[in-house]
Every structure is written in C-alpha cells, then in structure tokens.
Amino acid sequence: xxxxxxxxxxxxxYAKNRQKTRTYTLKxxxxxxxxxxxxxxxxxxxxxxxxxxxxxxxxxxxxxPFYVNPHGQRGVFYEISLEKKEGWIEVYPPxxxxxxxxxxxxxxxxxxxxxxxTEIVGYKVQRGKSxxxxxxxxxxxxxxxxxRSILSGETEPVTSRRGTEELESLLGDxxxxxxxxxxxxxxxxxxxxxxxxxxxDFFAGSASTAEAVLxxxxxxxxxxxxxxxxxxxxxxxxxxxxxxxxxxLQIQKTIDFLHAVERPSTLDQIGxxxxxxxxxxxxxxxxxxxxxxxxxxxxxxxxxxSSRILLETWRxxxxxxxxxxxxxxxxxxxxxxxxxxxxxxxxxxxxxxVLQALSDTTALRKIILRSSPKVASLGAEHLETFEARIxxxxxxxxxxxxxxxxx
Length: 407
Description:
Helix 9 links the parallel strand 17 and strand 18 (about 365-370). This protein is an alpha+beta fold. Helices cover about 25% and strands about 25% of the residues. The protein has a 7-stranded antiparallel β-sheet with strand order 2-3-10-9-6-5-7, with no helix packed on it. The protein is extended. It is built from 11 helices and 20 strands. It has helices at about 110-115, 160-170, 180-190, 210-215, 235-240, 245-260, 265-285, 305-315, 350-360, 375, 380-385, and strands at about 25, 35, 40-45, 50, 65-75, 75-80, 90, 105, 120-125, 135-140, 145, 200, 225-230, 295-300, 325-330, 335-340, 340-345, 365-370, 390-395, 400-405.
C-alpha cells in the first residue's frame, strides 16, 4: 500500500488426495476456430512436446518418424502415414531452438496409428526464404479450457469489490464486509464439481455460495448442484458493542435491515434473506421454474429430550444424514426404530426376548438402547450374550434438538 495498488488476492484450491481428485474444464465463451472438417470446427497444435525435460534420451518410444505425402494435400493439410513410402517426406519431432534438444511426440505409436488423417495430419510450415518444413499437428476441437492459476475476470469480475456490489444490489445497502464475488465462486465450483454434487460452506456469511450455486443451476447445459451452508447465529446486537465505530455503524444498518424484513438480529438471517431474493431474481431472469427453496436447520440444547430428539441426535451421531429414512418396526409387541442397519430402542420396557430376536437379525449391525432402570435390570449376563452389537446410551446428558423450517 502507498506505492503499488494491491489488485490481487489468493485462493487455495485444496484437495485431500491429489491423485484421486477430479477437476473439470470451463466453457470458453470467447473460443473461436480457424478450421473445420466433417466432424466439426478445430484449431491445430503441434504434436511434439515442447518441454525439454522430455527428450529422446528419456522417452525413446516417443521418438519415431511420420511420413508426409507432399502430393496428398487436403486443403491446407497433408496425408500422413507411419509406414515409409517412396516419395513421402520423413518427419521427426524437431529439436529445441535454444539447446537443440531433440523433442519427442506427445502420443505413442498405438494412439497415433488410430488417429492418422483424422485427428493428426501433416501441415506445411513456411520458413521465409528457407526450405518449407512439414510438421505433424493435432486437431484441437475442445471449446473448454482448464482453470488458470490467475483469474482475470475476463467474463465476470472476480474481485472482492464486485462481491460487495452484488450483495448491495440485492439487499439495498452494504450490510456485510468482503462477500465473495459470484464470478470467482462459479469458476471454482464449475472446475471442481459436476451435476449432483453437494457444495458445503462451513462459514456461510452472506450466503454467496448459495447464490453462485443457484446461478450455475440456471445455466443452460449445466446439471444442478446442491449446497449446504453452516453459519453460527451470532447475535449482532451483542457484537455491536465489541467493535470499532465504523463497523458499529455497518452492524446497526444490518440490524435495522433485518428488523424491516421481520427477521431476528442474527448473522445467519442475512444469508437466508439473500438466498430468497437471489432465487427470485434468478427465476425472473431465467424463466426457469426450478426448486429454489431450502430447508433451514437450527440446533438448540435440550436437557430432557423427547424420543424424537434422541432419535435425531443419535442418528446424526451414527453418521446418518437428516434425509436418511427412519422406519418404525415392531418385534414381539415392542416398537423400535431402524435407520438403515442400526436399531434404536428408545422405549424402556424392553425384554431379553426382544433383544434376542433383534440380535438374531443379521441385517442389523448395531442395537442402541436408551439407558433406563429397566435396561439396567437386565444385568450384564444378558447383555454380554449379544457381544459388541449392543450399546447403551445415556439420555440424561444434554442433547441437540434439530428444528427444521422450509423456505
């Protein structure tokens, strides 16, 4: 600052396992093609690998000759073969200009033989007054591109300033600091996800992630993604007393805004209001009648949980999602719940006969019992016969109640 205006930021594109990670190309709206054949439009690119690290010495199988028919011209291209023929011109990968390192081809002989005169052809390179030279070129047909390490915002701005403008256009004022620009998020999501994937944002803030996903879903040719946003319901009135004067004014504007739209003064409400407004705008602009709604889950501690709250809490604890179906079952007159291969026994009046019948069911991986005097009276000798499949859980400790509302 002071001498050079800072106009860049950094994004960490992280993968837990680089070898197993899949990325996707981005559509290039500005892509144009110079040539066309019966398959479609294309550009050309030399078949040789111009990286000096790969050369005849360490990639000998990629150093082999093609043969070009100088009289077999097809437009500006020439017929080629891997077999030596009389009158045809032998073509090897050229050497590098600086160090004269012999380049190698990017394709081996099997792949080259499959694509002769369809995806690879001969091409005459004009060398001024010197003798013309033939090259082997590949037809490049893709209209997509790999995401670059520098995002310049050639189609949509990707700066933080743009993110502020986007949020302000929806909510009418600057109510949140440094929201992420939608152009940046869409590039990242399109490069790292495909249709049907779920995008999770554990620091949702103003819900830029949700709006970016909704915009992608409205794009032609794109399959729908889903999103999960997580945000602590921070009390903005309490936060207001712990910040500086400039931020205090912004928080007060946010509180006034939420009050005007009849929402509580908590941080998560900004994101929900944004999603609703963004969804309406996208629907009006696109004319698409997709599902723009969402479910809002909130958690609160409960000291004396009901059976429903216990079931919700334990289901999540065992790795099942909110949408995992719960089935009410009955065994020997005893009602219990099944979530996939786990049984939840919440009613206290459970007998050894019921446990034995459930234990004999091979489809059950685990049987969860709610602690109670009746369960305790069964004694260790009864429970030990069922080995590790039975687990007793204390229902007296605080549990989290999941409240669900639909928007």
